[in-house]
Amino acid sequence: MYVKGVNLGNWLVLEKWMSPGLFDGTTAEDEYYLPTQLPKEIYEERIRMHRSEYITERDFTRIRAMGMDAVRIPVPYFIFGDRAPFVGCVKELDNAFNWAEKYGLKILIDLHTAPDSQNGFDNGGISGVCKWSQEPEEVEFELSVLERLAERYGTREGLWGIEVINEPILEDMWETMHVQERYPAVDPEKAAGSKPNTIEFIRQFYLEAYDRLRKYMPEDKYVVIHDAFRLKAWKDFMREDKYKNVVLDTHMYLMVAEMAGCDQTIEGYVNYVKEHFEADIAEMEEYFPVICGEWCLFNSLAVGHDTKGGQTVLNGQEGMSEEAMSAEEKKAIYRAVAKAQLDAWKKGSGYFYWTYKMLTDTVNTEGWVGWDCWDLGRCVDFGWFPTRE
To answer: For 137-191, what is each residue's pLDDT tens digit?
Structure first.
């Protein structure tokens, strides 16, 4: 098994920085608060229009033509439409399965959010709040969503697997990311009591989720667990014979390498990828098939200044509004970091690039120079990303 794929980020789970227009006329920074600031009809129309236009049949043909064989689709906890005021999106996922099967792609369903959030990130649905694991009824709700996903799609030809939950945060990453400073909570009362998950809780949740998924999903489909930003903590986990086809997902970004002190030079990035990303994946591949479920070419060198771990103008950081280097210099940086990272993923069992597309206008909006490389379509068009590796 070696999977080459791309994430369909910002389609069914919104991220403001990837689609700012959706948030026009509001001060909302995340999906939770968007419907609180728009009339119900306008909110629902915006969401439906976005979903129908952002990803279509044509995108699946393009992804296949890029040489990819899978997509990872982030879905929200309200996918089944049972958490007002949010709009469910199971119809869109149904469409995706039909397109994938028609064009020879596989789908990894990634349960990307949880009520009251598993990480406090904006992409966890509500910024600055992380209380899901402290709420037993919401933990059960999340398990029920997984079970329903498995029941609906478990035997579909297009299903590659189901990822139990995206990026649950533990104490070390909570502190490294300064989550509640980087993603300030709108309502301090709602955020009260927020704290990182414990690894004991996450392990137990994964065991329970595995059993729920396997009720409906055959053993030849993959159950994917995220490493909770602690890749080497899983060597003794799920060693029993009953656990079949479990894949460990790790997310490795150069901006996180920069936070860890990686030199912001081509040589610095390449060496860091080899010594850390590649070595760690090779080590853990002895225990699980390991995929890098999120990564990209983004780095501060190509932006032209230190982005402080990938913080944007939305985080109050001053961005660049003019290119700091020529198109040839930029291409050389991206080609080098692409090769290093793709070589690293080959020590494991595959990858999913983040992300297929975004709607941020990096040309006409102040401060977004260098962010275009998050968009795989642009990377392919500009020759930054080798499509047949």
So the answer is: 999 999 999 999 999 999 999 999 999 999 999 999 999 999 999 999 999 999 9
Residue of 266, 282, 255 whose CA lies nearest to 343: 282
* CA atoms of 25 and 16, how far apart (whole Å): 13
φ, ψ at 108 (rounded to 5°) = -105, 110
Cβ contacts of 368 within 8 Å, gap of 6 or more: 312, 313, 319, 321, 360, 361, 362
**CA dihedral (88, 91, 96, 101) positive or negative:** positive
Closest CA to 63 of 120, 107, 1: 107
Type of residue numbered 366:
E
Residue 197 has which token pair? 């998950």
Burial of residue 30 (CB within 10 Å: 0-12, 13-18, 19+) is buried
Cβ pair 343, 278 in contact under 8 A: yes
Determine which helix (DSSP H) or strand (DSSP E) holds 163, and give its type and residue range: strand 159-163
Contact 222, 246 (CB under 8 A): yes
Token pair belonging to 240? 């029993």
CB-based burial label for 237 (10 Å; 0-12, 13-18, 19+)? middle
Residue 277 in tokens: 């990303």
Q: Is the pLDDT confidence value at 335 over 70?
A: yes
Distance CA 55, CA 159 (A): 18
Q: What class does CATH assign to 3-381?
A: alpha beta
Q: Could you tell me the pTM of the whole model?
A: 0.98
| Token couple for 369 | 């120079």
Q: Average pLDDT for residues 86-106, to the nearest whole number?
A: 98
DSSP strand pairing (222-226 vs 246-251) = parallel
Tokens standing for residue 134: 């402290």
For 139, how many CA atoms within 13 A lie in the half-sphere containing its CB?
15
What's the rounded Cα separation, in Å, for the pair 136 and 124?
18
DSSP single-letter state for residue 275 = I
Task: Provide φ and ψ at 268, rounded to 5°.
Answer: -60, -45
- What gap in Å lies between CA 164 and CA 301, rounded to an integer? 34
Neighbour tally for 209: CB within 10 Å: 22
Token reading at 47: 């969401």
